[in-house]
Amino acid sequence: MAISALPPPPAGELQETALEFPDNRLLIDLCGEFDRNLAQIEHKLGVQILRRGNQLAVIGEDGSRQQAAAVLEALYQKLEAGRTIDAGEIDGEIRMGGSAENTGTRAGDQLEMFQGGRVEIKTRKKLVEPRTEAQKAYVRALFSNELGFGIGPAGTGKTYLAVAVGVSMFIEGHVDKIILSRPAVEAGERLGFLPGDMKEKVEPYMQPLYDALGDFLPGKQVAKLIEEKRIEIAPLAFMRGRTLSNAFVVLDEAQNATSMQMKMFLTRLGEGSRMVITGDRSQVDLPRGVTSGLHDAERLLAGIEGITFSYFTAKDVVRHPLVAKIIEAYDSEG
Predict the structure, then answer these.
(1) For residues 99 and 256, what is the distance between their CA atoms, to the nearest angstrom?
(2) Cα(18)–Cα(273) distance, rounded to whole angstroms?
(3) Which residues pair with 168 in a beta bridge?
(4) Alpha-carbon distance 126 to 88, whole Å?
(5) Whose CA is closest to 263, among 296, 223, 309?
(6) Cα-flanking dihedrals φ and ψ of residue 311, to 5°?
(7) In 3-state terms, the chain is what percent helix, strand and coil (to 5)?
(8) Are 274 and 249 in contact (CB under 8 A)?
(9) What predicted TM-score, i.e. pTM, was given to this entire model?
(10) Which residues pair with 258 in a beta bridge?
(11) Domains of the chain in sequence order
(12) What is the per-residue pLDDT across 91-138, written as a single tens digit (0 to 9) for each?
């Protein structure tokens, strides 16, 4: 891939960078249907991108032009590696500044820490990449510490990335099982008595965890591993009295655990295990006057070596762009 640019112009003037892409088929994929991928980059970075044969010309002010060029290079490298790109991948590259280094990081190498470059989590179905700097730091922390907290608003990837790391460590043989849990607390409304046996009663509460697993492992494999109890998905109350050894353990929606439940869960940590606690302090569904165990854990465990706290804000939301604006609106009102 060749890059050329004119001499630096006076400050504020537009400049052009030409990028050459040797594989025209990949260039078509890079541009997207009706050039929608280019349009997304243009809109986000305030540049103009023109296609000339097997070249893309990026026109804009110096900083945004260089960032757009780096994003295009990084996306093209993904295509060369046999990956596909979508709107989420493009948004992630824009947030991360288009770093194109070390796109071939293997999951097994991640346990040795990420020495710069790209962070990738290898699962059976796809490679997962953090899309913000906070997410990148969070994934690093989960691979390098036995107990980690991910705290922030909905849509920031706290649980999704934790499950991805757990699946990666499981398929690499670093843990023998995956245990996913969350408190069975109703979100602001009374559902009454649910029909069915215990599994059917709690399954609606656990569905987000099933959804995350389904993104990383084939459905039949998930079912088989659950049957073999190498993957467990259970309410927090089911953890009492157990020692969780050689497992990757995730407690989701931890803001809805009481202080006693949180202490009970944290003390389940056994030899060879890693534990991740995720939660959103703004979505506590506990009865009035009951202290959130997540709040207490934050207060009591901060500063203990081997325990990390990763924090997210609305800027880290990777769902629909409106979600970040909704969160900011509610935060400003509070």
Answers:
(1) 37
(2) 50
(3) none
(4) 14
(5) 296
(6) -115, 140
(7) 45, 20, 35
(8) yes
(9) 0.72
(10) 292
(11) 2-96 (3.30.1370.10), 107-333 (3.40.50.300)
(12) 878 877 665 444 444 434 444 334 445 688 888 888 888 888 899 999
